[in-house]
Amino acid sequence: MMSRSFRALTVALSTMCAGAAIAEPLSQSGVIASIDSDKRQFTLESGDIFIAGPKVKLSTRRVGEEVLIRYSVRAGHLLAVKMKRAPVQLNVPAKN
User: Fold this and answer.
1) In this structure, is residue 11 part of a structural domain?
2) What is the pTM of this model?
């Protein structure tokens, strides 16, 4: 029979490992290739297909727009939890 402290340690370690499986959202940037509002999905030019989470407003996005996406992987699907327009980067020549 396991001692009480060993069982407590086992439960604590199991809980910590389970928490590690729930990772923080990942990030990706890309250009929107298509939007399917009925399915709440959008595809990037890279071919990645995302499902828009409840806080993502697809109605404000356009095909060709460069975006930054925070997402998580749920049941094998990419779930976008946040999406915003990518900042414009200016190519300023370096001074000599």
Assistant:
1) no
2) 0.68
